[in-house]
From TrEMBL:
Residues annotated as domain AB hydrolase-1: 218-321
Keywords of the record: Hydrolase
Full protein name: Alpha/beta fold hydrolase
GO MF, any single term: hydrolase activity
Protein's organism: Flavobacterium jumunjinense
Stored InterPro entries: AB_hydrolase_1, AB_hydrolase_fold
Pfam family, one: Abhydrolase_1
Lineage of producing organism: Bacteria, Pseudomonadati, Bacteroidota, Flavobacteriia, Flavobacteriales
SUPFAM superfamilies: alpha/beta-Hydrolases
Length: 428
């Protein structure tokens, strides 16, 4: 099944390392590691003062408490992720819960996503002791009064390498601290999906956010359900050498707007794209779609063939049963509905229902496609291989690429191979 990633947090080995790697990222991760077996099965409260400035709709400020087992494997993360922090003045937030009995190692974490100025101060962690009293746990430099010391608070570490995102800077600043003389300031700039040259336009009743790169024939990149423009961070630079690359956040994703009173369907999204292309004066374009973007590419080729030149559909399906584990989507929906007391998960539920209910094409519907098409998937994809093959067989003059030892996430896991296949097809 196409897993809907509700919390894009990848935690590996969170230990300090001298080796530093610089790379582009839409996320900045900063953590303070704690080690104590005595915390297991105890109640906790973590609080901090935070504020955010110069942000876009997809910007996200988060802080929380990570639990890991004795092998440093992730168990739980309690955070502000769904609080949608938007305050420009200082405000103290608290996350609380009960620590898993299997938890042995812990981290107090800060996560910043996309463009913005993110400020943090006055961290405080309390654990309820065996006498039922709240005990304050000593944190190193909780108010960021001392100089930056990566042996205390450190960057995201992956396989022993310290990751330094190119798009973020961080410092202790004396500008308007919440308490004391300084606070932590993290700044994210010019990230794919929240770039300084990004634009908004109205299409089909919503504001759509888009970015363009390069020159030449237009190439529209369409992301998956739980994704945004940033999903193509490993494609844009290479594709922009050959094409005018156009990326757009689908409604409700990234920076684009949403209509709570309009059912989210692929037909609605197709109308969004049709109007979007008309308003940016694109008469005809190549399309590369991934996952739900692959579905949109197929539907555009059926419903608006005059607008589609060549089309690549990576891991798209034409009806829900084409997924390997469709019913797991309903399990996700039921879990979220139980937690949705404040309607904080309404959009997430809509997104999952989109794949659970739609699209509803027949194989014969593909016979009308006149665009030159490449149908792709991994041999370990979340779309059934036989379904991908049947899609290929029913599109006249289509090409098929089932990539060995590849998953649903081929464009991000093996971008060199994916890009090579796609560009070779587009240039034929």
């Amino acid at each position: 099944m196409k897993k809907i990633v509700l919390l894009l947090l990848f935690i590996f080995n969170l230990t300090f390392s001298q080796k530093k790697i610089t790379e582009k990222s839409e996320m900045f991760y900063y953590s303070l590691d704690l080690y104590s077996e005595h915390y297991a099965d105890k109640e906790f409260k973590l609080s901090a003062a935070v504020r955010i400035e110069n942000f876009l709709p997809n910007s996200k400020l988060d802080m929380g408490f990570i639990e890991k087992d004795e092998d440093q494997k992730y168990i739980n993360y309690t955070s502000l992720y769904y609080d949608n922090v938007r305050n420009t003045d200082w405000k103290t937030y608290e996350v609380k819960g009960t620590i898993n009995p299997k938890s042995k190692n812990f981290s107090v974490s800060i996560i910043c996503r996309n463009k913005g100025d993110f400020y943090f101060d006055d961290f405080k962690l309390q654990i309820k002791n065996d006498r039922g009293k709240w005990e304050t746990i000593k944190l190193e430099n909780p108010g960021f009064e001392e100089g930056i010391n990566l042996k205390q608070w450190n960057n995201f570490v992956n396989n022993g390498n310290q990751i330094e995102p190119e798009n973020f800077t961080y410092t202790h600043t004396t500008e308007k601290p919440f308490k004391g003389k300084s606070c932590l300031h993290i700044k994210g700039t010019d990230i794919l999906g929240s770039s300084s040259h990004g634009k908004f336009l109205e299409a089909n009743g919503v504001q759509l956010y888009y970015e363009t790169y390069g020159e030449g024939e237009p190439l529209l990149l369409l992301h998956g359900n739980g994704q945004s423009i940033n999903a193509f961070s490993k494609q844009v630079e290479e594709y922009a050498k050959h094409y005018k690359v156009i990326l757009v956040d689908c409604r409700g994703r990234g920076n684009s707007g949403y209509q709570d009173d309009v059912e989210l369907t692929f037909d609605v999204e197709i109308e969004d794209l049709k109007q979007f292309l008309e308003k940016i004066n694109i008469e005809k374009t190549h399309i590369v779609g991934w996952s739900d973007g692959g579905i949109l590419g197929i539907l555009m080729a059926i419903k608006h063939p005059e607008k589609v030149d060549k089309m690549v559909s990576m891991a798209g399906n034409i009806f829900p049963a084409g997924m390997i584990d469709k019913e797991e989507l309903m399990d996700y929906i039921k879990q979220l509905e139980k937690l949705n007391d404040k309607h904080q998960y309404d959009k997430n539920i809509d997104f999952i229902y989109l794949d659970y209910k739609y699209p509803n094409l027949d194989y014969k519907d593909l016979n009308v496609i006149t665009s030159k098409c490449l149908i792709m998937a991994g041999d370990r994809d979340e779309i059934k291989t036989e379904h991908t093959v049947k899609i290929f067989e029913n599109i006249p003059n289509a090409q098929l690429a089932i990539v060995p030892n590849a998953t649903h996430y081929l464009p991000s896991k093996n971008p060199e191979l994916f890009n090579q296949i796609v560009l070779r097809f587009l240039k034929e």
